[in-house]
TrEMBL record:
InterPro entries: EgtD, EgtD_Methyltrsf_superfamily, MeTrfase_dom, MeTrfase_EgtD-like, SAM-dependent_MTases_sf
Gene3D superfamilies: Vaccinia Virus protein VP39
Alphabetical keyword list: Methyltransferase, Transferase
NCBIfam families, sorted: egtD_ergothio
Domain Histidine-specific methyltransferase SAM-dependent per the UniProt entry, residue ranges: 19-317
Signal peptide range in chain numbering: none
Protein's UniProt keywords contain Transferase: yes
GO biological process terms on file: methylation
Species this protein is from: Litchfieldella anticariensis (strain DSM 16096 / CECT 5854 / CIP 108499 / LMG 22089 / FP35) (Halomonas anticariensis)
The protein's name in its UniProt record: Histidine-specific methyltransferase SAM-dependent domain-containing protein
Pfam families named in the record: Methyltransf_33
One GO MF term attached to the UniProt entry: methyltransferase activity
Length: 320
């Protein structure tokens, strides 16, 4: 292992059992569903990085433009020599837009995909030799904890990509409240939040012409087969993504193309033709609506930046 990266294994020993149990519970439910966190094996992480490059997927490029324009203001809010914690670090592209302006003394990337996390943090350590780089392999949606010995300085948690939208609003509030308990007093959260907008723009972003999002969605079935031995034929499913206006969210589903049965060990899970397996929600907010949620979670909204078309927003939330 590259010693330039301090690796922290926070993945629970029961992770594989938990994955299996969650899949059984999700396939047994009515309606059937699986958590979007299970998208992110290595192939899923690579597919998501490809999604971010698709012309329809405005979220990534818009957030990156906002971060470039606001980096000096963000750095002034945070101050130098901080600990910068990135939740769901992925390829760590966006963090590079902040590092030079913020000049933190330490960086901690947290991700559920171990191999992808190590690759990205090793690149960061090589490209920024002045930065102390840490990597924590963890499912932060279940367990939030900073590694021993890393706290004790001003901390900023960076949660980009509107990943907060994968939580339903009550769960998003609960997640932010748990995060607040982990961070030291005087810390802050820099978070990307997708905004409510025209249905056509939203639906195009999750139905790219190249079919990358469809492949990302279907890879979940392939992962079930590879890792758990689920008997499933991904070609028997179609990708479906649409905007649920009443709930202010994009929903992603896998739709069964025929009557079929998925098998896992002794369990048999029947699907009718047209039956849906719900794989993701991506909630959209107004600026005022998200700030109200953040206040209920115990934060003080300090700053917000958006783009000229008001497609996306980046918020800085203070812990007082």
């Amino acid at each position: 292992m590259n010693q330039a990266v301090r690796f922290h294994d926070q993945h629970v020993v029961e992770a594989q059992t938990s994955f299996r149990d969650a899949v059984i519970a999700g396939l047994s439910a009515t309606p059937k569903s699986l958590s979007p966190k299970f998208f992110y094996d290595r192939r899923g992480s690579l597919l998501f990085e490809s999604i971010c490059q698709q012309p329809e997927y405005y979220l990534t490029r818009t957030e990156e433009c906002i971060l470039v324009d606001a980096s000096d203001e963000i750095a002034a809010l945070v101050g130098p020599d901080s600990l910068l914690v990135e939740l769901g670090s992925g390829a760590s592209r966006k963090i590079r837009l902040l590092l030079e302006a913020m000049r933190p003394s330490r960086y901690l990337g947290i991700d559920i995909s171990r191999d992808f996390l190590l690759e990205s943090t090793r690149r960061l350590a090589a490209d920024y030799p002045w930065l102390e780089v840490h990597a924590a392999w963890a499912d932060f949606s279940r367990r939030l904890a900073l590694p021993d010995g890393i706290a004790g300085q001003r901390t900023v948690a960076f949660f980009p990509g509107s990943s907060i939208g994968n939580f339903e609003p009550p769960a998003a509030q609960a997640f932010l409240a748990r995060l607040r308990q982990v961070l030291p007093d005087g810390s802050g959260v820099l978070i990307g939040v997708d905004l409510v907008k025209d249905r056509a723009v939203l639906e195009a972003a999750y139905n790219d012409a190249a079919g990358v999002t469809a492949a990302f969605n279907l890879n979940l079935l392939e992962r079930l087969h590879r890792e758990l031995g689920v008997e499933v034929e991904p070609e028997n499913f179609d990708h479906l993504a649409y905007y649920n206006e009443a709930e202010s969210r994009i929903e992603m589903h896998l739709v069964s193309r025929c009557r079929q049965t998925l098998r896992l060990e002794e369990g048999h899970f029947a699907l009718e033709e047209g039956e849906r397996l719900h794989t993701e929600n991506s909630c959209k907010y107004s600026i005022a609506g998200f700030q109200a949620l953040a206040k209920r979670a115990g934060y003080e909204p300090t700053a917000v930046w958006t783009d000229p078309r008001h497609l996306f927003s980046v918020h800085y939330l203070s812990i007082l």
